[in-house]
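We emphasize that the prediction below concerns an isolated chain of 266 residues; any contacts that depend on oligomerization or on bound cofactors are therefore not represented. The input was used exactly as deposited, without trimming of termini.
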Amino acid sequence: MKNITTLLFLLISIATFSQEQFFVGEDSELLIGKTLTLKEGKSFYSGFYKDSKIKKLLYKDGVGNNPDKLKRLEFTVTGTMENPNKYNLGKDLVLVLENEKTGKVYYAYDPKHADLFLLDVVGGLTPPEGFLCKRLESEKDKFSSKTTTRTPTQYEYSISKIEENGENTIYLRLQSYGTTLNINKKGLKILFSDGTVIEKPDVDVKYKSASGTKGWTYSCFIRLEEEDIKTLTTKTITDYSLYIYEREMKSANALELREYLKCMTE
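Result of the prediction step, given as a token string:
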């Protein structure tokens, strides 16, 4: 019986991780009714509490939670709330979770940092069609007919759409990091989950000193052609390289990039 249970959980885990995991951020209501499991492979676990005041750690282990006791548990999200203890913890939102073993528990998280979110949705989660469009920011130039629409700031990417004189132009910025300095280099390559590759060997790669580190930030800024847009809105980026500086794109960013670009091309 134990072997069957282990196999069942393994199959559920494979199904979970093979699906896209959209980070809801401040839109926590999208998780109500969903089943969540612990995201494995992290070096530190915290944010799970036994009480609604968010003060008593669940399965306390030092200043965090014991991941071994949280693994293989499935939680149903029954509600969300603001964190009454956020000024001490720096975590703004709370998911109300139900599990037969633990009863009602609470998970506090920071809606601004997808990397720190410790739960996955069983079966995956993608945003409703057009949902991310509301997060785009538009600005109209006071002295011309130009309107610029931008995605929220991310380290890895940004998309800008310029509307002027009846014409639309879309630009993509990608950014990576390197420990060595290379000047006046070229070359962009984007890899997708289905094996598709976009190569632009003549793209200029800019550099600047990386803030707070000894390395360098490399970036490119390209105008997207019709074929680029078709690929980027129908496929999902896994990796990209700027000159020799390779980077695996965060899965949450890859999903958002694709969906934001759809918004800009509707």
